[in-house]
């Protein structure tokens, strides 16, 4: 969700060329940008990256590649509808208050199916940042057999006053500073990405958004990560996940704001790689035998 990215002009490393897939969902069809990163090989777990509210494939920079190499995972990175090079949000189209439920329950299953990923036979891991973390939690609560595990960094389970204040500041910055031109480096239509996110989070009805009731349904191994200097949320977010979810560890990072993958990438990669290693991923053939 963060609007705090302040990239320099030369800090975007080389990344694989984007691919595109058409995804039919919720009565619409979107052209979705994606890339595969990391090592290849049958039997390696798949780690799907769900970006923040202003993220995209390129906004991640080289973090997915670094993490997948450290964890021995295949990685799938994509830009949700409205972001990056994916189909932009239509002018004047406003997202509903439950947009993250739409993304988790409608779009994400359709996207994975469009790529031929059989989540029933070979459940992936999900790495979600901010809004992406919330989407990952909603998905895991509703499709517990279709996810191997979660890593959620700076996720939201309810709306805090400090979050709204920071988003109001982001709105002011988008209008009065160079934030729009910086975001244009990561989105074909920066207005699509920014106002889609900003408008819904500042909708008064969104103050009642809350997914705490879903958390007891999250049964997979979960690592909840947050920076102690997060400007968009307090530790109540990941502490709430740890209390409610069945198998949750927490990681609280010093000298770290809302984007742990940017502020503490080495520590984060090491912790996530260790967490995934402690929860081994069975081969697809083994899963089939277990379920038979």
From TrEMBL:
Transmembrane segments: none
Domain of life: Bacteria
GO-annotated cellular components: membrane
InterPro entries: AB_hydrolase_1, AB_hydrolase_fold, AB_hydrolase_sf
GO function terms (MF aspect): hydrolase activity
Keyword Coiled coil set for record: no
Domain AB hydrolase-1: 47-271
Keywords per UniProt: Hydrolase
Keyword Hydrolase: yes
Protein name according to UniProt: Alpha/beta hydrolase
The species this protein was found in: Verticiella sediminum
Organism phylogeny: Bacteria, Pseudomonadati, Pseudomonadota, Betaproteobacteria, Burkholderiales
């Amino acid at each position: 969700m963060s609007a705090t990215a302040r990239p320099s002009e030369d800090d975007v490393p080389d990344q694989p060329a984007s691919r595109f897939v058409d995804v039919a969902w919720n009565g619409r069809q979107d052209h979705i940008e994606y890339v595969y990163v990391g090592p290849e090989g049958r039997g390696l777990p798949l780690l799907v990256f769900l970006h923040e509210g202003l993220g995209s494939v390129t906004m991640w920079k080289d973090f997915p590649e670094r993490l997948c190499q450290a964890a021995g995972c295949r990685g799938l990175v994509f830009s949700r509808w409205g972001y990056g090079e994916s189909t932009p949000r239509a002018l004047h189209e406003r997202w509903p208050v439950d947009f993250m439920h739409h993304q988790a329950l409608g779009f994400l299953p359709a996207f994975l199916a469009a790529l031929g990923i059989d989540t029933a036979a070979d459940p992936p891991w999900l790495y979600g940042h901010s809004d992406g973390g919330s989407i990952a939690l909603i998905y895991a609560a509703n499709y517990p057999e279709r996810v191997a595990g979660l890593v959620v960094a700076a996720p939201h389970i309810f709306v805090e006053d400090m979050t709204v204040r920071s988003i109001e500041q982001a709105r002011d910055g988008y209008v009065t500073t160079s934030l729009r031109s910086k975001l244009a480096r990561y989105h074909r239509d920066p207005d699509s990405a920014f106002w889609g996110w900003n408008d819904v989070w500042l909708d008064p009805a969104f103050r009642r958004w809350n997914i705490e009731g879903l958390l007891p349904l999250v049964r997979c191994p979960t690592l909840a990560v947050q920076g102690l200097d997060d400007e968009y949320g307090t530790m109540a977010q990941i502490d709430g996940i740890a209390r409610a979810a069945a198998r949750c560890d927490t990681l609280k990072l010093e000298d770290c704001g809302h984007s742990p993958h940017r502020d503490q990438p080495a520590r984060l990669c090491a912790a996530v790689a260790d967490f995934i290693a402690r929860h081994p991923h069975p081969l697809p053939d083994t899963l089939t035998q277990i379920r038979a």
